[in-house]
Amino acid sequence: MDLKIDRNVVAKTDEEKSVVSHYRATLWGQQTALEREKEREKARSRQQLAEAEFGLSYSEDEMSNRVRKSIRIKLSKQRVANWSSVEGYTQLIPEAALIKLAVAQRSGFFDIFHIVEPRYSHLPAVSDPWLVGSIAGTARHIVIAYWD
After folding, report:
1. Which residue of 75, 98, 128, 143 has the fewest CB atoms within a 10 Å radius of its CB?
2. Among 48-57, 69-78, 92-101, 134-143, which is the least confidently predicted range?
3. Rounded distance between C-alpha atoms, residue 145 and residue 119, angstroms
4. Strand order across the 141-146 sheet
């Protein structure tokens, strides 16, 4: 038997208060779970659309590995990936990369853009920067552009 309780009901006894309180908590929990699932579904959809338009997505570790492997191995030098914001990047960004950045920004799939540069530990960056977009609502990144 389904028990239907009006949301605005005023409980009089302790037993009624307990039932109403439990009902409201259950409704709130269900609503919250549905909202979380809706946000996850939006993020999955955003990721699929971004991958269809811009290419495969990678976790931060996977992206760092790809960037590190883009420079050759040097004896006793560890390869690292240096992440920085586009706004904080001090070098010149080529026009072709800026156009791709504008397209990616207009798409609405990304919330943050980074410049990721390969370098050897304890040495300055080796150039060959990568422009990477972080897909909104996920921990995934897509390469937007790279240059020499």
Report:
1. 75
2. 69-78
3. 18
4. 57-58, 141-146, 130-135, 110-120, 79-85
**96 closest CA partner among 144, 143, 52:** 144
Sign of CA dihedral 102, 103, 107, 110: negative
Interatomic CA distance for residues 84 and 123, integer angstroms: 16
DSSP string, 17-75: HHHHHHHHHHHHHHHHHHHHHHHHHHHHHHHHHHHHHH--EE-HHHHHHHHHTTS--BT
The three-point CA angle 52-117-87 to 5° equals 80
**Tokens of residue 112, six digits:** 């943050």
Confidence at residue 8, expressed as pLDDT on a 0 to 100 scale: 61
- Stretch (H or E) spanning 99: helix 95-107
Among left, alpha and beta (phi > 0; psi -120 to 50; other), residue 109 is: alpha
